Amino acid sequence: MFMAACNQSAPKSNTMTDSTTTATVKLPAAARFERTIDGKKTELFILKNKNGAEAAITNYGAHLISLLVPNKAGEITDVVLGFDDIEGFQKAAGAYYGATIGRYGNRLAKGKFTLDGKEYTLFTNNGPNTLHGGKKGFDSMVWDAKQTDSATVELSYLSKDMEEGFPGNLKVKVIYTLTDDNALKVSYEATTDKTTVVNLTNHAYFNLNGQGTGSVLEHSVKIDADAYTPVDSTLIPTGKIEPVKGTPFDFTAAATIGSRIEQDNIQLKDGKGYDHNYVLNKHDISTPVATVVGDKSGIKMEVFTEEPGMQFYTGNFMNGTNTLKGGAKDEHRTAFAMETQHYPDSPNQPAFPSTVLKPGAVYKTVTIYKFSK
Q: CDD domains in the record, alphabetically (predicted)?
């Protein structure tokens, strides 16, 4: 693998004009992402499609930094929260803004799991549990990267045997592609030389009205899932799969995020809002598993995935401590995440779909975020 220099050496902007409005959105300056971390160079990569949509990605943590798409008025809108420089991502590592998550996305109970009769112990970084890979997950690593064309960047990382307590040398590849139908396609691939567990995802924080425009509680959400996995007080699944019908978790018909988020429900109280895994009805990459519409922008985001689950998170722990691109603060519930995944704590839950990867097998999965107006 090799590191390719970003072909964008200056701040970029994109302006779209219609009969009523003009808007300009700038991507972060490439120079602010050119650093040396752990002896490896970090860079900024800009993807473009024929419609003028753009995405910015850094090989530090394989973070998605910006995603520019048009709203109903024709204004280009940055729908992803992130930072203006590498230092912002380093300081807020535990917030996972736009990060590629691994080796295991979501939570593992008590930082332990057993494979082939051997118990593995991980670093606990989320109360009594391990979250998103542990103390230093894939979000804090410098990946090898090459931009293969104007719309595609390929990132690779070798997670060595027992890194963060996980067995096996795991070779990981993530490819971001910005397609001409305004979709961001994220393709994941991994192989191992020893039996291990793997659950990769992206932790983009979305606000379809644009970063810095306030709460997402009026966004309309539809999730094609008749069931979800309830959790205990530490947000570990109980092992049950329960129907959403008759609960605040029912988004089988479109509803705003805020319409039921404050209901007197123990699951909402424990999660401080929505922070739960949905058991998807279909995950065939051709059927949207979720649809979200920004109330002000009219931007519609459809999520497609080959994963059996999706964590719906409503920015419950955002508290305004981080300064984002352009000086915006990450205030409470000013973004949401839809992390496509296998279920949380699957290695400790035999009834859940398996996350075990064996030597000779290939972990391969695709998720697409498609935008329209």
A: galactose_mutarotase_like
